[in-house]
Amino acid sequence: MFSDGVNQSGIGRNEYPFGWDNDGVEEFVQGQIDVHPDISAHDLAKCIVRQAIKNDRFIPKDDISCAVIYLRDPRRLLICSGPPFNNEKDEFPCQHSG
Hints:
By secondary structure, the protein is mostly helical.
């Protein structure tokens, strides 16, 4: 997800007379993933923001915000527990407010 400063970046330039547009952003993202299949969500967001700034010739004309969420297959987790370090702290009662 991103602000309109991303897909509207580059408005008026020969390459993007109407802005980078959603299709342009999608093509860019897919290209990044094709070249760097293990790219982190953090790095992909930075790449998108940097490209939007570059589209505006390094003088952004609007706010440029981007968030990327990485979805993965769930993994199993095994939790092993032993006796408490301090028996007095073994039970923590649940406190409800209200």
